[in-house]
Design a protein that fits this description.
Structural class of chain B: alpha+beta
Oligomer: heterodimer
Number of helices of chain B: 20
Order of helices and strands of chain A: EHHEHEEHEHEHHEHHHHHHHHH
Strand content of chain B: 15-25%
Radius of gyration of chain A: 30 Å
Number of strands of chain A: 7
Largest sheet of chain B: 3 strands, antiparallel
Shape of chain A: elongated
Number of strands of chain B: 16
Shape of chain B: globular
Radius of gyration of chain B: 23 Å
Helix content of chain A: 25-40%
């Protein structure tokens, strides 16, 4: 017996398994937001919001969530922990989550209007004239001492729709606001979980990864050069798309609702980093292209302008789509040939020279060319291995049906076919 | 909570200014200011929408085809409703109409959207206001009374005492709170099977949907929808018990949040065989909807015709951070000229506009839909829902609970508690609409009517018309009235206007100084609660009974 390594994972029950943190506060700030990220978060199940805030996940500290849409209290009672965090009297680490982009309202008159407000009375320059505090004031106050800053959604990560061309709010992502030099109190740059809205599980999974890291249970996982979780955004959405096979065979949807590759009705999937078709939108169900929706690049910087106008064929697909139509067309025809034999070949069917399916009458017939091709295909397939083709020819025909017929059971009657068309294999 | 807002009015002796900034457990950013006199009555109220993002500014000068996916993002609570309204505005402007299966799919999606939305409102946003910890602190005598009051609906919802229901309503840990989260996930699972994702669906296109709807999708959707008949029956029983308990305990609760019975709703869920996306026919296809459009003024039904509902609507910005525009105040002609400035309660104080119908502030909501549908008694399809002129009969099919006909009756007095009760019935209503449209979709599929996009679809072959065109989408969300107004030229948007439900309810004062509906409702609310954290609970209950969505109110 030999071992490849003698290492072990963890040292067993011991001092390093004693948790250092019992709770971590989470301050949820809303900028130019639609609350869609919050809605996504409430849909998450890996882990769920109630697991995080309930503190029921072993090894993870409980999350004390301060979220305007979910909080018990309003007004000052709600804002009190925010003020404690700003004053450094919270006595527990905190994470800042930003939903929605950051407006450029620090550039407006400091005691005048703003685009996103939160609470009143925490910043003297605002309360002198009785104005609500600006969300950006809170961001400025809380980000430096946060254990981590997480931007949820494409608005908070890269600006998103509020940063689209022509808007007046000067909106930007959290990285734009804090700058590339920003590090949290735990030394972590801004973490970005893009998507409009993001998959809820993408967010809660990142939160639990950050909590694990703060707890020293696990190192921080890998992020890419834009602060995205690498294991979620390292691949294009096209690679795992259930319709990618159509692209390979050069078959494209011509109208919304068609089941083929969606590139020609506006899908940017081949060049967009996202995991929604693998992970599903919620509980492994749905996902844009899975349901027939073309990818509009909502997880990417530059969304929406870079992917506008929607529903229009992306220009890049002209070359690659045309190539795929040529070679994909060839591939497709070869596959259909194999498939035709795949659906008409079985040991007993071969020996009886029939496909005993009432459904298959129209397409089950084999031509001499089919037989010849089948013969050579099998030769190649079983070459260098046991020849199951030869073995099959020795298999006796079943006698049951002859006996049934002698007993007077005759099923040779016309079959009423339901309205759903029986597709021939050439059409698939 | 103490007064920190230094409005321009002097604070007289005994007058308290209360800042509820932010109002939690509402969608989006809402700050509410109440002035309470020395008798402890609210004598003035201001609803401040404190978030502006610029959706109408962004949509201007943009390709008309971008309207659906961009405007959907105006609201993350009801993005599907916005996407649908935008698709309908495009359809009218482009001259395309969706085939029946696409209309059924949209109806199905938007009914399912309510199945996620209503539970979250009833149990995550409003529900905790009636929970054990809150009631114990605010009104200890009511808690003691609840502990001694048996729940009439026990046979359906399973809670023995009213206090048991209140315990289950507790935020984060209560059984009903957690169940609502789970139910909202089942609904969203159903949604994404044909919507791709939620809150912002990926399959909405002008001229239909791009959903690939196969038999498994409909089966998986059906299996999620059939969880809701029992749930809706329980939810209705729970809220009937809670609402009746409060109304019987103290007549003051009957006064809370009372406003005149002025409702406006555009209806929802088009007849798959009637909707043709043409404005000239909209009165006809509007009245064939599965929820009837209508305007009710002081308790009387005034019209059910979409043009008569829409034409008298005006939006005012006298107290909003926008500049006036040349021309009339109809939403189709309104222009969005944002001017962020210092908030003054006597001047401009909100990012929300003030919409009015013939000058009246109007209420909308999932319950406005119940009102107009019940009163109009015009439903063309009555398999599960039957209006009577004064009530709505909802035939809940058998699941684990036996079949049951629920009846929502138009109440004599309309306020905070009836609003919340009606929202529970709206869950039952939406359940039946979702169930009905799953059956319709299966039926269309068996008939071979599987096409989901119009002849001139939005594929690479489609060209947006070059000439000047206008379009409007009349639709609704979990909170009611939603219209999108679009004008285009050369395929480029000249003006895009969104009028959302919470713009109606969370409206500031209008040109004449008339308060918005929620502002009025709060001034009608007696303060019956004590406790250091719950002193203004009654105000908050009233605000939350509207389910404000500030992202819709100001975009």
């Amino acid at each position: 017996m030999s071992f490849r390594s003698s290492g072990s994972f963890g040292a067993g029950p011991g001092p390093e398994f004693i948790q250092t943190l019992s709770e971590v506060h989470m301050f949820w700030l809303s900028g130019m937001s639609c609350d869609g990220c919050t809605v996504s978060m409430t849909g998450a199940s890996a882990p769920s919001m109630e697991q995080l805030v309930g503190g029921t996940l072993p090894l993870l500290p409980a999350v004390r969530l301060h979220h305007p849409m979910l909080a018990e209290h309003s007004g000052e009672a709600f804002m009190e922990p925010f003020k404690q965090a700003m004053a450094g009297t919270l006595n527990a680490p905190y994470i800042v989550v930003l939903e929605g982009s950051v407006p450029d309202d620090q550039a407006l008159a400091p005691n005048g209007g703003c685009y996103a407000a939160l609470g009143v009375g925490a910043f003297p320059i605002r309360s002198q004239t009785g104005q609500s505090d600006r969300m950006t004031d809170w961001l400025k106050a809380l980000a430096p001492r946060a254990a981590a800053c997480i931007a949820i959604g494409t608005c908070a990560t890269y600006g998103g729709i509020p940063a689209a061309a022509g808007n007046i709010t000067g909106s930007m992502g959290l990285m734009d606001f804090l700058g590339a030099g920003y590090r949290s109190a735990a030394g972590i740059p801004v973490i970005n979980v893009p998507g409009c809205a993001p998959i809820g599980d993408n967010f809660t999974e990142v939160v639990s990864a950050v909590l694990s890291a703060l707890q020293n249970v696990q190192p921080l996982p890998e992020f890419d050069d834009l602060g995205r979780p690498l294991w979620m955004f390292g691949e294009t959405v096209h690679r795992h798309c259930p319709k990618a096979g159509y692209y390979e065979e050069g078959v494209f949807s011509e109208a919304p609702g068609d089941n083929q590759c969606l590139v020609e009705i506006g899908c940017w999937g081949p060049v967009v980093q996202c995991n929604i078709v693998e992970r599903g939108a919620i509980n492994h169900l749905g996902g844009c292209m899975v349901a027939g929706g073309p990818c509009i690049g909502c997880t990417m910087p530059g969304f929406p302008d870079k992917y506008s106008p929607f529903y229009k064929t992306p220009p890049g697909s002209f070359v690659s789509g045309s190539i795929s139509k040529v070679y994909g067309g060839g591939i497709r025809r070869l596959r259909r040939m194999s498939m035709k034999s795949g659906n008409t070949v079985a040991t007993t069917w071969d020996n009886a020279h029939e496909v005993p399916s009432a459904w298959a009458r129209a397409v089950g017939h084999k031509t001499p060319a089919d037989r010849a091709m089948g013969f050579f295909y099998k030769k190649l397939q079983y070459h260098g291995s046991a020849d199951l083709g030869k073995l099959g020819r020795k298999t006796p025909l079943p006698l049951t049906r002859d006996i049934l017929r002698q007993d007077g059971l005759d099923f040779e009657r016309p079959v009423p076919v339901l309205s759903e068309a029986i597709k021939s294999r050439e059409e698939i | 909570m103490q007064a920190t807002f230094m409005g321009e009015r002097g604070s007289g002796l005994g007058i308290r200014h209360v800042d509820l900034d932010p109002v939690s457990r509402v969608a989006g950013a809402l700050s509410f200011h109440a002035e309470i006199d020395h008798n402890g009555r609210v004598n003035d109220a201001h609803a401040l929408s404190t978030l502006f993002r610029g959706y109408e500014v962004i949509l201007k000068d943009r390709d008309a085809r971008d309207a659906v996916f961009i405007s959907s993002r105006a609201c993350g609570v009801c993005g599907g409703a916005h996407a649908t309204a935008a698709a309908m505005a495009c359809e009218m402007a482009f001259g395309v109409a969706p085939p029946p299966m696409a209309i059924a799919a949209r109806n199905l999606m938007s009914a399912i959207e309510n199945l996620y939305d209503h539970p979250l409102q009833l149990f995550l946003r409003a529900g905790p206001d009636y929970s054990e910890p809150v009631v114990r602190e605010a009104t200890p005598e009511l808690w003691r009374r609840a502990e001694g009051t048996s729940a009439p609906g026990q046979a359906i919802h399973g809670f023995k005492l009213i206090s048991d229901i209140m315990t289950a309503l507790t935020r984060e840990t209560g059984e009903l709170y957690l169940e609502a989260l789970l139910m909202s996930r089942f609904a969203r699972e159903a949604y994404v099977l044909i919507g791709g994702k939620y809150p912002h669906p990926e399959t909405m296109v002008p001229g239909g949907v791009s959903s690939t709807i196969d038999t498994s999708d409909l089966n998986l959707i059906l299996l999620r929808i059939v969880k809701f008949p029992d749930y809706a029956q329980r939810v209705v029983a729970i809220w009937n018990d809670i609402v009746d308990f409060f109304l019987e305990a103290d007549p003051g609760y009957g006064e809370a949040g009372t406003v005149p019975m002025n409702f406006i709703d555009l209806g929802q869920w088009d007849d798959p065989l009637a909707y043709d996306a043409k404005y000239e026919n909209c009165a006809a296809w509007g009245e064939r909807r599965f929820a009837t459009p209508g305007v009710i003024v002081n308790g009387s039904l005034t019209t059910t015709r979409l043009p008569e509902i829409d034409s008298p609507v005006e939006e005012f910005v006298d107290h909003s951070f926008y500049e006036e525009w040349p021309g009339d105040n109809h939403p189709a002609h309104k222009q969005t000229i944002p001017r962020p400035s210092e908030a003054k309660l006597s001047g401009k104080y909100s990012w929300s506009t003030a919409p009015r119908w013939h000058g009246h502030p109007m209420e909308t909501g999932a319950y406005a839909r119940l009102w107009t549908t019940a009163m109009a008694n015009k439903l063309p399809h009555r398999r599960f829902v039957q209006p009577t002129g004064h009530s709505l009969l909802l035939a809940m099919p058998r699941a684990a609970l036996p079949p049951n006909v629920l009846e929502w009756r138009m109440p004599q007095r309309w306020g905070t508690f009836e609003r919340t009760r009606a929202r529970a019935y709206a869950l039952a209503h939406s359940t039946l609409v979702a169930y009905e449209h799953t059956l319709i979709a299966l039926d269309l599929k068996r008939r071979g009517e599987t096409k989901v996009s119009g002849e001139s679809h939005m594929s690479n072959r489609f060209k947006v018309p070059k000439g000047p065109r206008t379009g409007v989408g009349f639709w609704g969300s979990g909170r009611g009235y939603l219209s999108h107004h679009m004008s285009i030229e050369h395929g480029v948007i000249q003006n895009y206007q969104i009028l959302g439900p919470s713009t109606w309810t969370m409206s500031p004062r209008d040109r004449l100084g008339t308060l918005g509906v929620c502002e009025q409702a709060v001034t009608a609310t007696p303060l019956l609660s004590g406790g250091p954290q719950t002193a203004y609970l009654d105000i908050l209950r009233t605000i939350r009974s509207f389910d404000p969505c500030m992202a819709c109110a100001a975009h």
